[in-house]
Q: What sequence folds into this?
């Protein structure tokens, strides 16, 4: 099979981790007889430097014409003083909105070889962590009206959280569909005791749940959910939540699995292409030092193979190779522990490729 992939390496460590992921796809092509065509485009800080804007129209158009999008990381201190609409992060919002990617899947899995890197007590970690956060991606406060105004107490700022029933129902269906492939348990996270937007959110989720009698549904307020992720992460299967809450909770989940450098993500829409990226940032402090962990981006490639290209065996091949590389004792700096062997970005990528086999 032949696939066209739009590659946005981005800023900071983005080019380094993307390069290792492209090598992984090259190995998959050789093993399974596929052809992956990579076309590079700019977005984020590098696009600001080159074109004066974070997301050129040509990049968005090219992504729309591709079979899938592979994204590194955008942003960095160099662009921190720019106004909000010109920040590199606006490229992410533009890509998600422009491609109609409303469902963000963020798996958080604690690999057994990394049990020592989990900051939780051993008796909690040994029960296992395997959570899928399904985050709404194109609505809520991140896309709502915002502004500043003068008040009697001086300058003020405001952001608007708005969700329509349609937006909630479609992300809820995504979560229930994912749960049917896992443990058949969905936890809805909101703040319905305070926010009107959360009350609508919960009502819509309950309506959708009626179509999934085989899936168990429960509800947690976001503050309680953040506590339960630490206290009893094994109690979660699929979490469905808003754009902002999902952003926060998925980062928390990344830390209890050892490192944010381990977590991939998939951004999907109905019948459209997908965008795949690690959930970590551009980490400009370690850019160019061969110190970044490429595993999150490699696992994002595995999600691309599974969700966009429907290549289940190929995705499993990548996931097995990551596990074997970790079992060999290789560790990048972020997951290093006593008795293990420290490796850089390139060597970790090479080890994963070496462990890939049918």
A:
């Amino acid at each position: 099979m032949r696939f066209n992939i739009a590659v946005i390496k981005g800023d900071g460590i983005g080019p380094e981790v993307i390069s290792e992921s492209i090598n992984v796809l090259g190995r998959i092509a050789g093993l399974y007889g596929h052809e992956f065509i990579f076309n590079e485009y700019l977005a984020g800080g590098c696009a600001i430097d080159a074109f004066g804007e974070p997301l050129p129209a040509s990049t968005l158009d090219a992504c729309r014409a591709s079979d899938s999008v592979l994204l590194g990381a955008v942003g960095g201190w160099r662009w921190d003083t720019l106004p909000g609409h010109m920040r590199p992060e606006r490229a992410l919002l533009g890509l998600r909105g422009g491609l109609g990617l409303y469902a963000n899947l963020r798996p958080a899995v604690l690999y057994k070889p990394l049990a020592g890197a989990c900051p939780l007590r051993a008796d909690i970690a040994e029960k296992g962590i395997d959570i899928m956060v399904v985050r709404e991606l194109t609505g809520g406060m991140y896309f709502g009206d915002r502004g500043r105004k003068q008040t009697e107490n001086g300058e003020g700022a405001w952001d608007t959280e708005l969700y329509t029933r349609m937006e909630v129902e479609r992300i809820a269906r995504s979560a229930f569909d994912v749960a049917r492939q896992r443990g058949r348990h969905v936890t809805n996270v909101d703040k319905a005791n305070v926010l009107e937007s959360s009350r609508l959110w919960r009502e819509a989720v309950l309506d959708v749940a009626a179509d999934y009698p085989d899936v168990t549904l429960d509800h947690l307020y976001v503050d309680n959910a953040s506590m339960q992720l630490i206290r009893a992460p094994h109690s979660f299967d699929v979490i469905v939540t808003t754009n902002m809450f999902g952003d926060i909770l998925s980062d928390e989940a990344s830390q209890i699995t050892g490192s944010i450098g381990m977590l991939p993500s998939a951004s999907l829409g109905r019948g459209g292409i997908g965008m795949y990226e690690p959930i970590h940032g551009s980490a400009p402090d370690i850019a160019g030092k061969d110190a970044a962990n490429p595993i999150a981006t490699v696992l994002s490639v595995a999600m691309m193979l599974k969700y966009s290209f429907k290549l289940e065996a190929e995705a499993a091949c990548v996931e097995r190779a990551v596990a074997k590389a970790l079992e060999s004792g290789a560790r990048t700096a972020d997951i290093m522990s006593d008795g293990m062997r420290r490796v850089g970005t390139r060597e970790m990528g090479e080890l994963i490729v070496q462990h890939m086999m049918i």
In short: The two ends are 17 Å apart (CA to CA). Residues 120 and 138 are 32 Å apart (CA to CA). The domain at 1-100+305-358 is CATH 3.40.718.10 (Isopropylmalate Dehydrogenase).
